[in-house]
């Protein structure tokens, strides 16, 4: 039987929202002087906001252990939501407290910097929002030529400056510094976050695998296949994505995520299929074979999801357009599983790897349903396994709107949420 629920995500939210801020709140509650009773609530808001800012910074380091539990898209979603919540609490803190001198100055600088970065990030770096709110997507498209991928990353890093300003703001407040238990947790959380961030940068600088681009060809309109040969084997699983950069090429030196087409456990080569959606991906046609690259990974939860549901009898995959890429890697690495693939694209020429799909159709366990334009709900439901639906797992890949639609359809037709997994890449 497949599992009905994955509790890791809910537990992660609970720990971040309640457990992490709790020691700071408790120590403040005991140690704050009665003279500041009117500001108690606002001070608590400030402490919680700082704790959540540190969580957001930690999540930005992409800890692999957490990725395998909840997935990097969910980590980035939590990162974004915690940043929004922290700025809101910072507003409540600022509006309900009084200060002067450098205490006020550092606090104000941090607040306005965070507020500005929040507005910028909601447009350019919160794909989970722009994929759902059309006006945000339109503004993002309009301004995209002015703010390249690397510029956005460096602007986003100003959150570190804002956090340092908050740190200084706190240590300038004498009556707060006098609360030794609070300052223990304050320094502990700050130090752990700093060490984690520096360690992640060290890993990126020293431990990333060197690789060489061995092939770069167009395989469809606006889609390129890149083949990389890493100098050492990376720890990637089928269905994973890796982060790639080309340090010697201007505009391509920051890491960018791409899904694997092939099974990395069966080959030393890494094959990527990439659609030219942004300035980074549109520049890839200029990268010549032999160009050095940096690679880190893998990330993803498609294969861990399958491992967690090892009792499944059937695998149903619903994919659209470029979203099929990581699922090709899954199909490639599971030749003996009963797999149904429903694959659509806007145009015939956008259906990727027809030769690979034709070869897989020789497997007795593989069934392909492929067409131009979306499937009708009834078409897919009619073809779903009739025997042992409780032992069927569903993998979705494609635009966020599409995956959300099929999740609703599957839930209406007897599947449980624990049987369905999709990874959205609208970061």
UniProtKB/TrEMBL annotation:
Q: Which residues cross the membrane?
A: 41-59, 71-91, 111-130, 151-176, 182-199
Q: Which domain of life is it from?
A: Bacteria
Q: Name one Pfam family in it.
A: FAD_binding_8
Q: Which cofactor does it need?
A: FAD
SUPFAM superfamilies xref list: Ferredoxin reductase-like, C-terminal NADP-linked domain, Riboflavin synthase domain-like
Which terms does the record give in the GO molecular function aspect? 2 iron, 2 sulfur cluster binding; flavin adenine dinucleotide binding; metal ion binding; phenol 2-monooxygenase activity
PANTHER family of this UniProt entry?
1,2-PHENYLACETYL-COA EPOXIDASE, SUBUNIT E, NADH OXIDOREDUCTASE HCR
The protein depicted here goes by the name Phenol hydroxylase P5 protein
Q: What species is given as this protein's source?
A: Lentilactobacillus parabuchneri
